[in-house]
Amino acid sequence: MSTLSTHVLDAVRGGPAAGVPVRLTGPLAAPGGQVDEAGVTSDDGRWRAAAELPPGTYRLVFDTGAWFAATGTDGFYPEVAVTFTVRAGHHHVPLLLSPFAYSTYRGS
C-alpha cells in the first residue's frame, strides 16, 4: 500500500494556494473498492489522502475554477486533472498554478 500527498503553489503570489478543492479517485481500472476522497488544501497549500492506496492508476482533480473565483482571479483552467500511476511507497504530486499555466511533477 502507498500514501499520497499534494502541494498547490500559487505562482503569481509566490506562496501556497490555500482552499483549493481536491478530489482523488482510483484505481481507475478497478471496478468497486475504489478510493474516492475529497478535501481542500490547507493554509500552506497541502492535502494528504487518508486512505492507503493499492497499486494502480489514479486521478487528482483540482477545482481551480472555484479557487480562482474565491481569490478574484480570472483563470483560464476551470480544473486541472493529473492522472498518475501508484507503485509502492509515498507519492507526492505538487501543482504549480497560475491563471494561464500550470505545471506538475512527481515530488518527494
Automatic annotation (TrEMBL):
<comment type="function">
    <text>Catalyzes the hydrolysis of 5-hydroxyisourate (HIU) to 2-oxo-4-hydroxy-4-carboxy-5-ureidoimidazoline (OHCU).</text>
</comment>
<dbReference type="InterPro" id="IPR023418">
    <property type="entry name" value="Thyroxine_BS"/>
</dbReference>
<dbReference type="InterPro" id="IPR036817">
    <property type="entry name" value="Transthyretin/HIU_hydrolase_sf"/>
</dbReference>
<dbReference type="InterPro" id="IPR023416">
    <property type="entry name" value="Transthyretin/HIU_hydrolase_d"/>
</dbReference>
<dbReference type="GO" id="GO:0006144">
    <property type="term" value="P:purine nucleobase metabolic process"/>
</dbReference>
<feature type="binding site">
    <location>
        <position position="7"/>
    </location>
    <ligand>
        <name>substrate</name>
    </ligand>
</feature>
<feature type="region of interest" description="Disordered">
    <location>
        <begin position="23"/>
        <end position="43"/>
    </location>
</feature>
<dbReference type="Pfam" id="PF00576">
    <property type="entry name" value="Transthyretin"/>
</dbReference>
<comment type="similarity">
    <text>Belongs to the transthyretin family. 5-hydroxyisourate hydrolase subfamily.</text>
</comment>
<feature type="binding site">
    <location>
        <position position="46"/>
    </location>
    <ligand>
        <name>substrate</name>
    </ligand>
</feature>
<keyword id="KW-0659">Purine metabolism</keyword>
<protein>
    <recommendedName>
        <fullName>5-hydroxyisourate hydrolase</fullName>
        <ecNumber>3.5.2.17</ecNumber>
    </recommendedName>
</protein>
<keyword id="KW-0378">Hydrolase</keyword>
<dbReference type="InterPro" id="IPR000895">
    <property type="entry name" value="Transthyretin/HIU_hydrolase"/>
</dbReference>
<feature type="domain" description="Transthyretin/hydroxyisourate hydrolase">
    <location>
        <begin position="4"/>
        <end position="107"/>
    </location>
</feature>
<comment type="subunit">
    <text>Homotetramer.</text>
</comment>
<feature type="binding site">
    <location>
        <position position="105"/>
    </location>
    <ligand>
        <name>substrate</name>
    </ligand>
</feature>
<dbReference type="GO" id="GO:0033971">
    <property type="term" value="F:hydroxyisourate hydrolase activity"/>
</dbReference>
<dbReference type="InterPro" id="IPR014306">
    <property type="entry name" value="Hydroxyisourate_hydrolase"/>
</dbReference>
